[in-house]
Amino acid sequence: MEFIMVLRWVLGTLSFFLVAPLAYILAPFVALYSVIKNDTAPRLFYYLLTPDNPLDGDKYHLARWPNNSAWGKWLRRTAWQWRNVLYNFRYDLLGVDVCPAQARWYGDQSVNGEVSKKGWQLAIDENSNTFSFFAFLVYPGTRHGVRMYLGWKYKNGQRDTAVKRKMLSFCINPVWGG
Q1: What is the pTM of this model?
Q2: What is the pLDDT of residues 31-75, one digit of tens each?
Q3: Dihedral of the CA atoms 172, 90, 132, 108 (nearest 10)?
Q4: Who's near 6: CB < 8 A, 6+ residues apart?
Q5: b vs e for 144-164, b when ≥16 Cβ sit within 10 Å of the residue's Cβ?
């Protein structure tokens, strides 16, 4: 069972890495089209976009990129797509319906990526053949560390009692924190 779970994730991750270069190349063109065509992107590029935020990004991204000129919008929208590369692809095509409360959990459930919450957690759901591994490991004497999210994102841990779509994730950030 675990072999199939890991193989599924490896194949999904490989498909992401095969398509991601094209997504990075297309992002500036999708952003340009959206600036010219009144803030809309062609349906053809659905897998490059995010379902839960507009092309301009979330409120934090808007705060980082406040310029509303055509040039500013183009930069902001390109950066948002690069930050969330192939979001819908990882969510719709490679994602899986999971009920995290039914998974077996290991490690510290309070770990969440905040500087004060270092550690790791692993969840294995045999019903959906998926896993979720999250770790935040702090460099000694600093507030920075390595943040890893591998598998599928079971964001809310065991509190998440509903079956919901979880996106495939492969994220290793060696300079997380602040």
Answers
A1: 0.83
A2: 999 999 888 888 889 999 998 899 999 999 999 999 999 999 999
A3: 60
A4: 131
A5: ebebbbbbbbbbebeebeeee
| Pair 123, 100: CB distance under 8 Å | yes
Any idea how long the chain is?
A: 178
104-107 and 168-177 as β-strands: parallel, antiparallel, unpaired?
unpaired
Residue bearing tokens 């045999």: 126
Amino acid at 150: L
Q: Would you state the structure tokens that stand for residue 101, as one six-digit string?
A: 């409360």
Nearest Cα neighbor of 131 from 159, 170, 93, 161 is: 170
Place of tokens 């959206």: 34
Closest CA to 100 of 128, 73, 58: 128
CA–CA distance, 157 with 94 (Å, rounded to integer): 20
